[in-house]
TrEMBL record:
InterPro entries: 3-oxoacid_CoA-transf_A, CoA_trans_fam_I, NagB/RpiA_transferase-like. Keywords: Transferase. One of its GO terms (molecular function) is CoA-transferase activity. It comes from the Bacteria. This is CoA transferase subunit A. The keyword Transferase applies. Gene3D superfamilies: Glutaconate Coenzyme A-transferase (3.40.1080.10). Pfam families: CoA_trans.
Length: 240
């Protein structure tokens, strides 16, 4: 099975359609499949339901798809860095399904593991639990959450081989490995593409069986949402 494609557009060819559900890895701007997201934008598909921890920021990541109004619904945890998101939500243009962050992660993991639903204490007694089944286990009440499974998962990895075995780097791992397992088709962008056998089997985070298509995106920009540092003068004074 041929998995390696020349670019993002060819890797997504035949996969995109209106009103589909897409998972997009990343946390803030860390580990987002930015090249694949841009290819989705250029395709013009619309009415998308996007499952992602957040929606990027204005002008970057999934924020690009919000600007073109290609997203109909977001299933997310944190969206506080995107003014476009807030504007569309408050005006009724964008539907949101909020999740506690751990619940979102487990819904995705469960989807990849073939588990249809699970019970958690998180959210009980809050708006998160409204309209959902509650069940008593011992002395505690739990809320039932359904798993998530998408038509397409877009993933960013640090290294991958041509068979699709993936290695993620530090915090850029975040939601990417879980999402790679929880979709009918997974398309991955990797910073370094290597030959099979190059990666130590013990270092593989996601086996290639989950990956359908892969592209190499060298020289990716490591973006930072909010750079927080000490003023240089204070740092110098502190050294003395």
């Amino acid at each position: 099975m041929r998995k390696v494609y020349d670019d993002a557009s060819s890797a997504l060819a035949g996969l995109l359609k209106d009103d589909m559900t897409i998972m997009a890895g990343g946390f803030g701007l860390c580990g987002i499949p930015e090249t694949l997201i841009e290819a989705v934008r250029l395709s013009g598909v619309k009415g998308l339901t996007v499952i992602s921890n957040n929606a990027g920021i204005d002008g970057l990541g999934l924020g690009r798809l919000l600007e073109t109004r290609q997203i109909r619904k977001m299933i997310s945890s944190y969206v506080g860095e995107n003014a476009t998101f807030a504007k569309q939500y408050l005006s009724g243009e964008l539907e949101i399904e909020f999740n506690p962050q751990g619940t979102l992660a487990e819904r995705i993991r469960a989807g990849g593991a073939g588990i249809p639903a699970f019970f958690t204490k998180t959210g009980v007694g809050t708006q998160v639990a409204e309209g959902k089944e509650l069940r008593q286990f011992g002395d505690d009440t739990y809320v039932m959450e359904h798993s998530l499974f998408a038509d397409l998962a877009l993933v960013h990895a640090y290294r991958g081989d041509t068979e699709g075995n993936l290695v993620f780097r530090k915090t850029a791992r975040n939601f990417n490995p879980m999402m790679a397992t929880a979709a009918h088709v997974t398309v991955v962008e990797v910073e370094k593409l290597v030959e099979p056998g190059t990666i130590d089997p013990d270092h593989i985070h996601t086996p290639g069986i989950f990956v359908s298509r892969i592209i190499e995106v060298a020289d990716t920009v490591k973006r930072i949402e909010q750079r927080t540092v000490r003023p240089r003068t204070a740092a110098v004074e502190g050294a003395h």
